[in-house]
Amino acid sequence: MIRALILSILALSAAVLKAQPQYPDHIYPDTAYAPFYYGVASGDPLQDRIIIWTKVYMPDSIQSPSPVKWQLATDSFFQNVVTDGLATPMREHDYTIKVDVPGLMAGTDYFYRFQTADRHVSQTGRCKTLPGDSVQHVKFAVVSCASVWSGYFNAYRRIAERSDIDFVVHLGDYVYDFADEEELRRMPAVYPVDPSTLAQWRERHTYYLLDPDLRAARQNKTWIAEWDNHDTDINGGDVQEAIRAFYEYLPIRVPDEAHPERIYRQFRFGRLADLDMIDMHLFRGKEQYAPGKGSVLGLQQDAWLKDKLLTSPATWHLIGNQEMMGSWLSEGLPKAFHAPGNGHVFDPGNWDGYPGDRMRLYNFIDSNHISNVVVLTGDAHMTFVIDLAREPKNKQSYDRRTGEGAVGVEFLGPSITRGNMSDRKVVPKGSIPLVQSISKSINPHHRWVNFAKHGYFTLDVTYDRCVAEVWYSPIKVHTDQEKFGKGFTVLNGVSHWERAKNGNVKRSTYPGVKK
Question: Which CATH number fits domain 2-128: 1.10.3720.10, 2.60.40.10, 3.30.465.10, 2.60.40.380?
């Protein structure tokens, strides 16, 4: 059987190499590590355990797959193997392997790999467990909205290369259900079909993993991820099939086996910070907290989040959130702009569509004297730096000059590749700075915006402060260039972004930027 497997792998490698012209530029399997064509990944770290992942190519002729050996060590040469074991790639999970490795040390870097019975070895991955109570500093890269057809995943490669990043937080739209007709930059010979079955969702995930920059980010960093609408849109299919494929292809521990749609969960970084990953996508508007009053998170998740915020001993309360929490007001915008939305807000589909429920959360934070709330958000494909103000235009409750009156802060990061104003041609490119200025003027709680660039942001957390920096990468060409955009600071005990010289980070301390 082993000989048959080797011959099948060699045949597939030849077929894949021969078929590569149908792929767009910079899309190819990792044939050097057959049968582990799709790389390795790690995620959902705890202080004593972590998930490691891979996928094994398995020909249909193999009816009883052999177990794959996995190893986890403290060194990249695997001279000090801490633990190992066997895992069998099963057809019912599309031959993906996820191992929840226990018995690890907190705040420790490990190396891991997989090996077939005939000694074919995967790439070596690097992972990290959550720190213990003595931790003084942690740094995240925060990403969202990565359309493989819209451009190159340069930002993923930069994150993979950065030695200062501890963990990656992915806020959804990890894969896309459809290709936007205005953004067809890297298209395969066969136009992608909107997935509606489990098999099609699995095909979408495997296609994404033909991108070597995404593979590098998964290989070199430990991820904490959640889905958004494009990861789970079903086009007449069963949402449970999209959810199943998401769990199969990302290194995620299922928080509730009886209810796999409940992906919300907490990660604790000692006494420094908690990260509460919430899910508004699958729950918004499905329940009411009062007659006629929709709940954006659903009653159970709403109670869960508030309990976590209230009982947490951590200094910082980080919230991973798919769509904008702070309002984006459109009132006061000239009618000639033909702004989307309802005339009051640009997008009533996000938290702006549930102002009463959002106010309940803000009041809960304020009345319970919960400080240091930092919301990390994706989805909008643009950059927003926001003070979370209950009534942004009410000068009695919020001072835009100082930030007094806010109950927390939000950093909404750019997309990895998916289109924004510069791609969608919503306004002439030369007019984007004017649009940014107008939007900021009618949203006094918006500290800074950028509607035209792509990339990611970092969050550097210490007991004294959190510093958020946005980094921009081109998407139309494959390049190792990136540019520091801007940085902002929130101080311990202060629920708004700092102003003037104390708040703006004009030059990043990270020396590795490639200009």
Answer: 2.60.40.380
